[in-house]
Amino acid sequence: MPNAYFILFELIVYIQLLICLPHAFKHGAGNLLKLGAGILFGVALELATIRQLHAYTYGQFLIMVLDVPLCIGVAWGCIIYSAMEFSDASSLPYWLRPILDGLLALNIDLALDAVAVRLGFWNWGLQLNEQYFGVPFGNFWAWFWVVFSFSLGFRLLARNKNWIGVWLAPALALIVGLAGVLGTNAFISFVISKSIRPAFILATLSTALLIVAIKKPAFYQKPVHPLAFWIPFLMHAYILIAGIISGVIFQPIFLLFVGLVMLIVAFLLHHKTARAIFKPA
What we know:
Radius of gyration: 18 Å
Helix content: over 70%
Strand content: under 5%
Shape: globular
Largest sheet: 2 strands, antiparallel
Distance between the termini: 42 Å
Strand order of the largest sheet: 1-4
């Protein structure tokens, strides 16, 4: 039986799904299929990556799909869905929005992964003082390309308002997403040498951030559904609360600093939605 931290994590992820589902239903089959494809993609990419790299294993959660917790696939689907909801309301050029989507995902993972390994959610086979506090640097590379690849694949056809955009964009997102994940996994693991891998990853992600910064995108160019705020906020809140109660976020205390900074970044990005949600009646 999983411990309370595992169960609460699963519960929060399924709450995130319940937040996304009404929006997807309301906005038609294309959005519903995008959310469903994102969840299927999340499970598939985890199954494929574990077998491709043999780099990590999951702990035992309540609902498992072979050796992958179902909640992980659901979390991927919700993160992708919420990131695209936010980026599509920005002034960023359409074909650059997948970059922003990938960076939004990193806002979550920079706080999540080092706490999660200390709670036993997954195991990278590293000492907790290795690389990024027990998390390989390549994990952040992977998070960016996971979300970027699915977002790009979906957007290739999503502008078509006919049946092609509705039915084929989610399918193409799955194909491009999986190809992108497996391809970038292989590239960083088998092509880039270990000696330059951290610098290469940092340079790539910094370039992505620079591209977005140069464009100086304006956000909230159209209404943004509150789900774009709630998905990252619930995850950040869980990380901080579970980390503080268990004490693992103090090992080292820098993890608490990172968690707070990432929460503040999320609030700054979603300040209009947060202000509307928490405004006194």
